[in-house]
Design brief:
With 264 residues, the protein is an alpha/beta fold. Helix content is 47%, strand content 15%. The chain has a 6-stranded mixed beta sheet with strand order 2-3-1-4-5-6, with helices on both faces. The chain binds guanosine-5'-diphosphate and magnesium ion. It is a single-pass membrane protein.
């Protein structure tokens, strides 16, 4: 009997609590309720915006990649100090801040070492902070080292796909030299060599048709010779530049500056 009485009292208490909660809500007028909802929605929006900005600002890096002697470190010093400084090395990565001329956005530039072993390590360090890749080529000697250049570029493009780094600029440097080839000629030579590299990689993965290769990392169209325009997931552009200043030929990095302003 006593237990039944206790239960009744408990139920009554709960009922009263619900009733008083109802009363509180009823007492709140519609305006106050509206204000509360607006406040909560506003707070959530601010939180989402902060998360979005945080993610974007983390990826404000630009990688300068390319084989040794392409001119990466000189381009880096020209951008960061607007002059040549001998103190930068090509043995380890160099990092510096740069503000784009038109949009005035500050970005980080990472000059990766060209040596094969060091560049993989450097990419692992900077890849996640990167929003775009500049691949530098020596326009005078690229034919001699085309295998190396194509192999490195292929790896870079695959890395870019995996990390969802879309803009890739292939920068044909040393245009001041008499025997320098233009971007158009370099592009078609590279396409031929990348076709070979792609076949080798597909075969290595167990099937010359590349069937076993992940669809997301296959560069270009299957059963068709490699063409940059078929790599739709990346925004690949070509440009020419001169990083070294001489009496007769001035530094010309305008195409790089325009591109940087476009992609930031
Ligand atoms: N003529 C000429 N030489 C350049 C140019 N850019 C770089 N160099 C030279 O190429 C060599 C290699 O440059 P560096 O920046 O160290 O190449 P990295 O190995 O890619 O970092 C240096 O002697 C530079 O002075 C250029 O536009 N024109
Ligand atoms: Mg260097």
């Amino acid at each position: 009997m006593a237990t039944a009485e206790k239960e009744r009292v408990e139920v009554e208490k709960e009922f009263n609590a619900i009733e008083s909660l109802k009363d509180t809500f009823n007492n709140l007028d519609r305006d106050t309720l509206g204000l509360l909802v607006a406040l909560v929605v506003g707070l959530i929006s601010i939180l989402l915006l902060l998360i979005f900005i945080g993610k974007r600002s983390k990826k404000q890096g630009i990688i300068l990649a390319g084989i040794c002697d392409a001119g990466k470190t000189l381009i880096f010093t020209q951008l960061i100090h607007k002059s040549f400084k001998e103190t930068y090395t090509s043995i380890k990565s160099n990092a510096g801040s740069f503000t784009t001329p038109k949009k005035k956005k500050t970005i980080r530039i990472f000059d990766l070492p060209g040596h094969e072993r060091l560049r993989t390590q450097a990419f692992e360090e900077y890849g996640k902070l990167t929003r775009a890749i500049v691949f530098v080529i020596d326009s005078t000697t690229y034919q001699k080292s085309i295998k190396d250049v194509a192999e490195y570029l292929y790896t870079m493009m695959c890395n870019a796909l995996v990390l969802k780094i879309t803009p890739v600029l292939i920068l044909c440097n040393k245009q001041d030299q008499t025997f320098a080839k233009g971007a158009k000629a370099i592009k078609s030579t590279l396409e031929k060599e990348l076709n070979v590299v792609r076949t080798t990689h597909s075969a290595a993965l167990g099937g010359s048709d590349g069937a076993s290769e992940n669809n997301n990392t296959y560069l270009g169209k299957r059963n068709k010779d490699f063409e940059f325009s078929d790599v739709h997931s990346l925004k690949i552009e070509f440009a020419e530049c001169t990083a070294l200043s001489k009496e007769d030929v001035p530094v010309d990095l305008q195409s790089l500056l325009d591109w940087l302003d476009k992609i930031v």
